[in-house]
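One example copied in:
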Amino acid sequence: MKKVILKQRIFLSTLMVAGAIAIFSSFKKNETIAAADDLKGTINISGAFALYPITVKWAQEFKKIHPNVTFNISAGGAGKGITDALSGLVDIGLASRDISPEEVKKGAYTIYVTKDAVVPTFNTANPDAAALLAKGVKRDQFLNVFVTGNIKNWKQLAGSVSVPIHIYTRSDAAGAAETWSKYFGKKQEDLLGVGVYGDPGLAQAVKKDVTAIGYNNLAYLYDLKTRKQVDGVHALPIDVNGNGKIDANENFYDTIDHLTEAIADGRYPAPPARNLGFLFKGKPTKPELVAFVKYVLTEGQKFVDENGYIVLSKQKLSEELKKVN
């Protein structure tokens, strides 16, 4: 009888220990989940159309890890984003251009997160399309279209059909416009053309006008599912070496992947290739901001390629991480 009671006590003790272990394990598991969810707050972001799509993706993925962090993200051009950040209206300004010394004096603190490029565009129904794709356009020719106005007809570029060039540019303070004009050593205000608001608007303007010329960021020129250029708008190839034709090493516009490879290895000139960054008023200190930036520069980089951007070099990423540590 004593042996039976002893066995029962041992069995009950075993159950109690197992239960305690289970409870402790459950507690530790819940503690781990809580630790992952303890970050909270709201991150307000505005700025460059160029950086908007990938920033939305980063925010969505970050929320899977930290669901208590809320994001408010809007695209209104780099100028607006930088102004909003420096005036304290948002936490992050999406910057797609160089930061001026005046903005640095106001507290601008930039952490670069990826890279892309501005690409000249034209309508695919242009009567000179075949010749333009074969010959490309030289830098000085682009200058004489967009800045001096000395070239007014597509025949001056392609030597075929005589039709006027209708120039479209950005009406908002845009990093794309600033970067495209920097290619000629100029400023956005030096660019000629009909002003159109936003990257999507500029792409639509070129799409609707057979004799149009413009420029766009990659995200608005390519379809990320097919990886090919969107219907109606086509990249206008840059004749980088100026020999009057698009050579094999200059022919990389068919897919966004081929173009991003050319940007990464330097075959596509910079500018109009450029780094894209998060701009803060002073070094970020809010826990949710610091965590988000660190995520973007580490785990978040795996989403860069598929979304049509270029991953920064390991050295550059390391340099940018030091800015937030």
